[in-house]
Design brief:
The chain is α+β, with helices and mostly antiparallel strands. The protein has a single domain, classed as Outer membrane efflux proteins (OEP). It contains nine helices and five strands. Strands 1, 2, 3, 4 and 5 form a five-stranded antiparallel beta sheet that branches. α5 runs antiparallel to α7, α5 packs antiparallel against α9 and α7 packs antiparallel against α8. The longest helix is centred in the middle third of the chain and has 68 residues. The chain starts with 10 loop residues before the first helix and ends in a 13-residue tail after the last helix.
Length: 479
């Protein structure tokens, strides 16, 4: 028995209807027109305070010149869990965008079914029992929304911008990871150098103590000189133990960042080497380059997403039209399912018009507008923070050369003072206290120089990180 709700309707007509509905979708977009906000910072970055500047448009492998450090960074990029989570977040965001974008197109399903039923004679008009059969095969789409006011399109755009935001977050995580690994590696190198200095000083102090002890036994040195020498030995022992502990902690911190224990051959030597290039932006470089930073780009994508959310919230005030349709074939016998005259179709459009919702749509719109303002303020704060970070790094860079030069000069002066005090002490022209003072000053100058060398190297990393891994005023910003 043929279904009475279906009549003839060609399958190609259903396909044409689906295509036409897709073309009609998105005729109106109610989202506000998007414009990149004006930058709330000065137009130019501060000068780096150097005569020449190296433009940074290179990969991290070109920026870091130490081969051991390059190997450690490669390990971190392969094993760091935070970076792995960021990459998985991208996969999730990509899948979510695929789900949202699917709403722009009609979903077509194929179906086939059959049924047999028996009606007893007591219920049949003829008084005889009756067996009825029905078979069908069709293609159909269910509740496809004609996106006349851009609701679905704006939801899809919001999800797309969230996906772009996640990508930028991953890039930010990678840049921060590279800089953090390099900083931890340099910190380990500096503390190993400090440990070596402390141990060398301890050995020297012990030799001096042995000499003073023999002189005291012969009566040529006082007990005060012996006690003073003993105090320097104990102080050097404490420093050596403290730096030994710091070195172990530095190795643990580096292993955590890398995600595995780095091989010994990739660990730094005790000598402080130049690990990264000196990269300083040229004078007058536009602050627009900060918009390349992944955190700034992520904030702008969040702003674009909130802009699209307003469009979706506005579209909720307008009617929603949904189409449900199917086309296929139906027959009371399985053998007659695809014979001439068995074509069947159904078409059921529906319109939903919001009349009263207790203010829900209006409240949703207010939420979307407030969120857009929040994202705008967040974007502007992110740009301001980026400018300050770059300005602070460049301000430190301007004085580092002078500080290093002064410290090297001071180190030379304390070295000469220590040598002279030792000569005068041996000739009996001065007390051992003068030797101790000169030695402490020389030791402190050495430790300070190591710290300044570490500061100079980490400042290069800070400039690299705060500029988002480089600058290029013509960079594409559309994700």
């Amino acid at each position: 028995m043929r279904r009475t709700s279906l009549s003839r309707f060609p399958l190609r007509t259903l396909a044409c209807a689906a295509m036409a509905s897709a073309v009609l979708s998105g005729c109106i977009n109610l989202a506000p027109a998007y414009e990149t906000p004006a930058s709330p910072v000065p137009q130019a970055l501060p000068s780096g305070g150097v005569a020449t500047a190296t433009p940074l448009d290179v990969s991290w492998r070109d920026f870091f010149v130490d081969k051991q450090l390059q190997g450690v960074i490669e390990l971190a990029l392969a094993n760091n869990r935070d970076l792995r989570v960021a990459a998985l977040n991208i996969e999730r965001a990509r899948a979510q965008y695929g789900i949202a974008r699917a709403g722009l197109f009609p979903g077509v399903d194929a179906g086939a079914g059959g049924s047999r039923s028996r009606t007893p004679g007591s219920l049949a008009t003829s008084g005889e029992a009756r067996i009825a059969s029905q078979y069908s095969a069709d293609l159909g789409m269910t509740a496809y929304e004609l996106d006349l006011f851009g609701r679905v399109r704006n939801l899809s755009e919001s999800t797309l911008q969230s996906y772009f935001q996640t990508e930028e977050t991953r890039r930010s995580t990678q840049i921060s990871l590279v800089a953090s690994v390099a900083t931890a590696w340099l910190q380990l190198a500096a503390d190993e150098q400090r440990l070596a200095l402390a141990r060398s000083t301890l050995e020297s102090q012990r030799k001096s103590y042995d000499l003073i002890q023999r002189s005291h036994a012969l009566g040529s040195q006082s007990g005060l000189a012996l006690a003073q020498s003993q105090s320097t030995v104990d102080a050097a022992r404490a420093d050596a133990a403290a730096f030994d502990s710091l070195v172990e902690q530095d190795r643990n911190a580096l292993a955590l960042l890398v995600g595995t224990t780095p091989p010994v051959e990739l660990l730094p030597t005790t000598a402080m080497t130049e690990a990264a290039q000196l990269l300083v932006p040229p004078a007058g470089l536009s602050s627009n380059v900060l918009q390349q930073r992944p955190d700034v780009r992520a904030a702008e994508h969040a702003l674009r997403a909130s802009n699209a959310d307003i469009g979706a919230a506005r579209a909720a005030f307008f009617p929603r039209i949904a189409l449900t349709a199917s086309a296929g074939t139906a027959s009371s016998t399985l053998s007659g399912l695809f014979t001439s005259g068995s074509k069947a179709w159904s078409f059921a459009p529906s319109v939903s018009v919001p009349i009263f919702d207790g203010g829900a749509n209006r409240s949703n719109l207010k939420v979307a507008e407030a969120q857009q303002k929040i994202q705008l303020a967040t974007y502007e704060k992110t740009v301001q923070t980026a400018f300050r970070e770059v300005a602070d790094a460049l301000a430190e860079r301007r004085t580092l050369a002078e500080r290093l030069d002064a410290q090297r000069s001071l180190l030379g002066a304390t070295s000469r003072s220590f040598e002279l005090s030792q000569s005068l002490f041996r000739s009996g022209a001065t007390s051992f206290l003068d030797v101790l003072d000169a030695q402490r000053a020389h030791y402190a100058a050495q430790q300070t120089l190591i710290g300044l060398q570490l500061t100079e190297q980490t400042n290069r990393l800070t400039i690299y990180r705060t500029l988002g891994g480089g600058w290029s005023e013509g960079a594409d910003r559309n994700g």
